[in-house]
Design brief:
The protein is α+β, with helices and mostly antiparallel strands. It is built from 8 helices and 9 strands. It has a single domain, classed as NADH Oxidase, CATH 3.40.109. Strand 2 and strand 3 form a beta hairpin. It is globular and about 55 Å long.
Length: about 250
Amino acid sequence: MDGLGKKFIEMTKFQHLEKSDQMNGKQAPPLELEYDRGKEMIPLPDHRAIHLKNKNLREVIENRRSIRSYSPELLSLEELSFLLWCTQGVEEVIPPHGTMRTVPSAGARHALETFLLVNRVNGLQQGLYRFLAVDHHLIKLDMNADIGARVTKGCLDQQFVKTSCVTFIWIALPYRMTWRYGERGYRYLYLDAGHACQNLYLSAESIDCGVCAVGAFLDDEMNRCLNLDGEEAFVIYMAALGKKMS
């Protein structure tokens, strides 16, 4: 079998799998990646407080397009809260193994974390943030003036990344998934990222926003921007979002 992709598919078939760490009685990994509790936390508004346009599902799906040009209008903090809830919102914590969220995930493992490059959100300083899904808070990570340029460079200089209101950066924590599913869990990481991004596309339609998913990025460059090791945690998918042009 030629090619790494074909080998990946072959070697993650069920017949090649050994017993997972869960089967071997090992403790489940934490529900969230550890973070510096000394950093500034920002509670997000209640996602239910926002007024949404009355659009039926058929209309939303028909209107979904990838949009790379955005109006100068700011995204509100209430709108950002709504989008984060739609893409990774926690509805129930099931200790110690998982969470029930607004997107599906194999075994309720939810092995993604959401980072945000904030460019134009009302009430937020420009910079890099992380979404703490269990508490529905943001935490500041990198407020340096060059963070937008560094992330854009990591995305092969696609300029809409820094002209967006916000660019979502999803990272994968493979052990949170492979603990239960072994090597096959790597497949599920990419499925989960697709679920989250599609929810972003659809929810954006109800607040007059456009989205463009980003799969073209330099993995090592992006991992460095977020201080990730590239193995235990790595950038898996991204999406820019901004207000639609009139």
